[in-house]
Specification:
- By secondary structure, this protein is an alpha/beta fold.
- The protein has 2 domains: 224 residues, Alpha-Beta Complex (Spore Coat Polysaccharide Biosynthesis Protein SpsA, Chain A); 102 residues, no CATH class.
- 49% of the residues lie in helices and 16% in strands.
- The protein has 15 helices and 10 strands.
- Strands 1, 2, 3, 4, 5, 6, 7, 8, 9 and 10 form a 10-stranded mixed β-sheet that branches.
- Strand 6 and strand 7 form a beta hairpin.
- It is globular and about 60 Å long.
- The two termini are 33 Å apart.
């Protein structure tokens, strides 16, 4: 049987995490897939591990770049090679739950005009301890048409990362590939796709995203974040004729951008990063016509003298807990079925063992 889904796995010198990622795909209850691993460093250990799996399973393919082309270009290269009707992206340290492909394909078969399937995404820390769950903002599952998606996105609804998504290849054929000039092209790609094709939402947990450090995007520059959000808004404007009262939603979106920029600015303040503070303040003033509150200004002024007040700064690190959205395992149990939670615990336990070998 020809494969129906391509799992694109770009990788860069994380062979032990990669083992667990591959195992999570091989555990899928839907068998008609292929795994394409794109090595950004031609790492001999990675090659050996993938060769071992490829010998056992012909659905697993390996390609090594002659040089490091960067993460975004590696994702784009993998996307350009897709020849199956559907595809998904998986980072080399993330995991898929066993029923993911089955649920996605059943949903896509029922709605052939859909371009994206979005499943629930679990966040875990570096040691695979559960920290959060997405799609809380989307109260119901089902089909979301482009106008609905864009208005809800503009209103600040959180969408998951593409780890728990399956895309129809017709999406790539119509909107093109990733914008490699953007540092974070995934949200841009999702919004462009959902702005043209219906999206299927299913709150069932389908994948696990591993967070490194405080934030998955804490290393991004404020200007990079702002430029990406502006690019996303430009894409939405192209479809604005289909959105009732677009100016109202645009204003909501800009307020959300202000909030995001302030979060990054506060993180820069806590790090004592003066150049980022200046950049954030300039963006708020020149582009968003906004200003900081008294408390925000106070924190930033402290950070400008960080070398003299490091004790205070260490105390202020607790502010990060306010910014961080997480849930306990008991809270997660209340959100999903008991059988699904047991599957998640089993996958995490097995993945830890694979990474220790």
């Amino acid at each position: 049987m020809d494969p129906i889904i391509t799992a694109i796995i770009p990788t860069y010198r994380r062979p032990h995490h990669l083992k667990a990622a591959i195992e999570s795909i091989r555990a899928q209850t839907f068998p008609s897939y292929k795994v394409c691993i794109y090595d950004n460093a031609a790492d001999p250990i990675t090659r050996k591990i993938v060769s071992h799996y490829a010998d056992m399973d012909p659905r697993i393919r390996y390609f090594a770049h002659s040089e490091n082309i960067g993460s975004t270009r590696n994702f784009e290269f993998g996307l350009s090679q897709v020849a199956t009707p559907f595809f998904t992206f998986l980072s080399d340290d993330d995991l898929l739950l066993p029923h993911f492909f089955s649920i996605a394909m059943e949903a896509m078969d029922k709605t052939p005009d859909a371009g994206i399937f979005m499943g629930g995404l679990i966040y875990a820390d570096e040691k695979l301890r559960i920290k959060g769950f997405t799609l809380d903002d989307w109260n119901e599952g089902g089909v979301c048409h482009p106008e609905q998606f864009l208005t809800q996105f503009l209103s600040g609804r959180q969408i998951p990362l593409w780890t728990s998504m399956v895309f129809s290849t017709k999406v790539r054929d119509q909107i093109g590939g990733l914008k490699t000039e953007l540092e974070v092209p995934d949200i841009d790609f999702i919004v462009r796709a959902a702005g043209l094709f219906p999206t299927i939402f299913d709150r069932t947990p389908c994948a696990i995203f591993r967070q490194h450090g405080f934030s998955i995007s804490s290393s991004l520059k404020i200007k990079t974040v702002f430029d990406t959000m502006e690019e996303i808004l430009r894409e939405i404007v192209k479809n604005s004729s289909s959105i009732s009262h677009f100016s109202i939603y645009e204003e909501k979106f800009r307020r959300e951008v202000c909030r995001i920029i302030k979060v990054y600015l506060m993180q820069a303040a806590l790090r004592g990063d003066r150049s980022e503070i200046i950049s954030g303040e300039k963006i708020l003033k020149d582009h968003l016509n906004d200003k900081l509150t008294y408390l925000e200004t106070f924190l930033i002024n402290i950070s400008k003298k960080a070398s003299q007040v490091m004790g205070i700064m260490r105390t202020l690190m607790t502010v990060r807990k306010i910014m961080k959205r997480g849930i306990t395992q008991s809270a997660l149990k209340r959100k999903i079925a008991k059988t699904e939670f047991k599957q998640i615990e089993t996958l995490l336990r097995r993945s830890r063992l694979h990474e220790q070998r």
